[in-house]
Amino acid sequence: MAIDTAAIDTILQESMRAADVPGAALAVVAGDTVYAQGYGVKAAGQDDPVTPETLFAIGSTTKAFTATAMALLVDEGKMAWDDPVRKHLPAFRLSDPLADANVTLRDLVCHRTGLPRHDMLWLGSPWDRAEILRRIGLAKPSASFRAVYQYQNICFLAAGEAVARAAGAPSFEAFVQSRLLDPLNMTGANFSTHDAEQAADHATPHRRNPKNRIEIIPWRNLDNVGPAGSLNAGARDLARWVRFQLAGGVTPDGARLVSEASLRETHTPQMVIRMEQNTRALYPDTTQMSYGLGWSIFDYRGGHEIVAHGGAIGGFRAQVALAPQADIGIAVLANIPSHLPEMARNLLLDYLLDLPAHDWKTAYSKQLKQTESEQKARKKEKKAGRHKKTTPSRELAAYAGTYAEPAYGTATVTKKGGRLTIAWSSYESKLAHFHFDTFTTATGSDPVFADEEVVFTLGADGSVTALSLFDATFKKLKKESVGVS
């Protein structure tokens, strides 16, 4: 299938201007035709251009690699989709007895365990994979087992660790490297932020600061949750990956890595994704959206099947999409959190599928403004609900101490220089009094720990007994109990 590369370049460049993105990269596969290109710059304010080989963090699009690695082992009889998780990870537990007794590998990779995200157990935490998996076994569910789709990264970590154990491989990363990346000649791809930053050709992550100015931020290390989202890759690498997926598990040189049936299972709907108002606004013609195994599946503008997944982590955003019936695939990468990948994906799909033009730029811009407006409204509502001129129920020293929660471990509150400070995981922040016994972490701390509410609870005798953080309740320990981690 011939494609007009000039038209594709125009779509990307106009999308970048609309989204105000420093740098982006694109891969398009249409039958045997492959096009990869870089646009813009690797770092804002610098001249080094993005190339088709420039490495970007691709975040949760890594999940499809994890599911495909599982498919390889299914073919070899070393794993089955409906194996109990404990067949491969004997120590794995869930706090819900029903889920604990019945959870399978399939449950892990289609987001139906009943667990909410609990991302703070891994995001920036000092805990290794084994410890994170131990802690998620103590974390509280928010839905019944297999009742609803709830996106969950740590379950993909468990699936990746099960891959390594079933394969007898040194690590999940080593298995994927030898069985997928090397055969596909994805020579630039890697699983380490350290390796990515050491590479000669890598992008730099960015964010928009509170004044809406673009600024450079550090790469975020994802080693402790690797199978859920730690892969780094360039457009040329992802073109090979997309082509392999469209070919049903066959490499460009004709080698079959995985059976078509096992790969197709990853593209098959497993759990319905409820389409809320914001989703419907961006998918106006979509009638169903489901999650497969490491992929989302939905119908697009007249019934075209799309198999896709996004990724967003630490200053990067990615989108990989397949239109299997048309033998078309797309990967879009950006070095700032932005709606560019999804917007460009849709514009490219419309062009490649010869669909009537749709103003996706306005649609995504409108949605972005609405989201920003809703965020401002929530902040305004929170500010309006603040009871001014209140004071804490107790003197600040009474709040100091060590607090513990089974999954989240210990949080330590200290009184320093007339105010409280909280330390939890790898984070530490001063606390500002909001009202009554509610405090907030500092606005200027790590963004993932900024403006978090810390609400203290008093017992009947007036003593401070607990605090809530991340919707988890930490109970205050007696001094002789301190030492729990």
In short:
The chain is α+β, with helices and mostly antiparallel strands. Helix content is 31%, strand content 23%. The protein has two domains: 370 residues, Beta-lactamase (3-Layer(aba) Sandwich), CATH 3.40.710; 86 residues, Lipocalin.
> Count of DSSP helices?
15
Percent of residues in helices comes to 25-40%
Q: So what's the CATH class of the largest domain? A: Alpha Beta
> In the CATH hierarchy, what is the architecture of the largest domain at level 2?
3-Layer(aba) Sandwich
Which fold name is given in CATH as the topology of the largest domain? Beta-lactamase
Structural Rg: 24 Å
Largest beta-sheet characterization: 8 strands, antiparallel
Shape, per Cα inertia axes = globular
| Structural domains: how many | 2
Mean pLDDT: 95
CATH superfamily of the largest domain: DD-peptidase/beta-lactamase superfamily
The main sheet orders its strands as 2-1-12-11-10-9-8-7
Task: Give an overview in words.
The chain is of the alpha+beta class and 485 residues long. The chain folds into 2 domains: 370 residues, DD-peptidase/beta-lactamase superfamily (Beta-lactamase, 3-Layer(aba) Sandwich); 86 residues, Lipocalin (Beta Barrel). The protein contains 15 helices and 20 strands. The chain has an 8-stranded antiparallel beta sheet with strand order 2-1-12-11-10-9-8-7, with helices on both faces. It has an 8-stranded antiparallel β-barrel with strand order 13-14-15-16-17-18-19-20. Strand 4 and strand 5 form a beta hairpin.
